[in-house]
Amino acid sequence: MADSYDLSALLSTEERDFLIRNNGDQVKINGLSGKTLGLYFSASWCPPCRGFTPTLIETYKELSEKGDFEIVFVSSDRDEESFQGYFSKMSWLAVPISDKDTKKSLGEKFSVMGIPHLVILDKDGKVSTSEGVELVMEHGAQAYPFTQERINQLKEEEEAAKRNQNLKTLLENGSRDFVISSDDKKVSVSELEGKMVGLYFCVGSYKPCTDFTKKLTEVHKELKEKGENFEIVLIYLDDDDEEGFKEALAQLPCFALPFKDKKIEKLAQLIDEHGAAAYPFTPEKLAELAEIEKAKLLSQTLESILVSGELDYVIDKSGSNVPVSQLVGKYVLIYFSAHWCPPCRTFTPKLIEIYHEIKAKENAFEIIFVSSDRDESSFVEYYADMPWLALPFGDERKTSLSRKFKVRGIPCLVAIGPEGRTITTEARQLVGAHGADAFPFTEDHIKNVKEKIEEMAKGWPETLKHELHEHMLVKTRRDGYYCDGCNNQGHSWSFHCKECDFDLDPKCALKNEKSAEEGDKGKVETKEGYVCEGDVCRKI
């Protein structure tokens, strides 16, 4: 059963029983009782956060009218000025930037490993989902109240729409049943039914698009003069260029989906993944594409992933080219990361340790760094500490890899097997939970690792006293937490003090314990006959 959080205990301190708005107003935390609450972990320095926040703002505007939904911003900004500049765009609440302890506690309690991250608590304080970012990106306000039942309902509606696809299901989204005209008027999608409609995917600043728009304008005019029942609907793909959208719509006598509309992303994703092959977007065509994609996955090789034309190599630490063919037959982790990203800089040293551990027992293993750094000097500085291979800075394959593995945030770790097929796109979570023991990242192996942990847990004491904490610690099943002994993320089990929200990973909690029967320094024999030494517990 999911934990139920008391919002006052979660968000307040002895000195503070309020949250703040961007105008400085204080809002009592007890006023949030009975509301659905989003905890938004974000920061101004984070490009994916800055990209997602405007979408969340639009969703919040729609949901705030209900009166039973609120968001609390939990900032990872480094200074007051950055915090205030970013927070000024948000109309919701925030934990004060100065309250570092509360922000840290929230991050640990909800196992926040990267940003943006949105946790939704229901009206009873229970976690509805930790995947709020994905749900808002895909469904917007329609996802409310973000329960599994609602998500299942949306999926069923989407499947039904695919089975009965028509122009309305293709172009409408939620309560929006219109497109807009070049003179900014709303036109019902139903008025387009029965006509030949061209969907024009366009990026205004891209020269081939601007050139083609001129030609398309001429063709549209000729067809209209001939009395052809033909219309164009503009699908504008650059969500950072509203002026470009307005210019394209004014230049081309057509209709358009509203700027940054949710439906654009869904249609663009089909085009992005399948190109012109996605046409005509019918259920039969999508089913056909799904089968093609399944066949591609089964026939996938490392070279099909990493080789593009003459780009058939990665680089080593000296900058020398390493042919991709030399990596065939190895386990490969593709590491999406960047110097500007604090979660990446925190994770990388841990990954370096794990890399050496795995290499010590399996030489047919390698990591390839795929950089999201903004300039080459940052890439060089960051890569200098890494012992593995990399794509060259600015390599065009980065875009195709990010698209193929649907990388929406970093750090991200994708595991590829010796046959070249994808094992998992969630290797980062597996490494965080199990360290080097996660290798080779297959479902069967992870299942065995978890079973071993459960078997060992039977032999651990139910309670213990540790020098790092004043109270008795209780063996507790915990889905995710940060160990107060080593600051690493823990999973499955903790020795926990509920009163103080204090956690020790069993590795930390048990390694300094001494059995009355076992006198060897650094070892502990548990009740069930296990010996724990260093970070390993095994049966006697």
In short:
37% of the residues lie in helices and 22% in strands. The chain is an alpha+beta fold and 540 residues long. A hairpin with a 4-residue loop joins strand 24 and strand 25.
Please give a handful of descriptors for the protein shown:
disordered C terminus; Glutaredoxin; 540 residues; 5-stranded mixed β-sheet; alpha+beta; 18 helices; 4 domains; single chain
What this model shows, in words?
The longest helix is centred in the middle third of the chain and has 20 residues, at 342-361. It is built from 18 helices and 26 strands. 37% of the residues lie in helices and 22% in strands. It has 540 residues and is of the alpha+beta class. Its EC number is 1.8.1.8. This is protein-disulfide reductase. It holds the Pfam family Thioredoxin_8. GO terms for molecular function: thioredoxin-disulfide reductase (NADPH) activity.
CATH superfamily of the largest domain: Glutaredoxin
**Rg, Å, rounded:** 27 Å
Note the gap between the termini: 35 Å
Strand order of the largest sheet: 5-4-3-6-7
Q: How many helix segments?
A: 18
Q: From the helix content, strand content and strand pairing, which structural class follows? A: alpha+beta
Q: Which strand-content bin applies to the residues?
A: 15-25%
What would you call the shape?
globular
**Could you list the spans in which at least 5 consecutive residues all have pLDDT below 50?**
514-540
Helix share, percent: 25-40%
- CATH topological fold name of the largest domain: Glutaredoxin
Name the average pLDDT.
84
- What is the CATH domain class of the largest domain? Alpha Beta
The biggest beta sheet is recorded as: 5 strands, mixed
**Per CATH, which architecture of the largest domain?**
3-Layer(aba) Sandwich
Q: Quick one: how many beta strands?
A: 26
- Domain count: the total is 4
Keywords: NAD, Oxidoreductase, Repeat
Protein name: protein-disulfide reductase
Pfam family, one: C1_2
EC number: 1.8.1.8
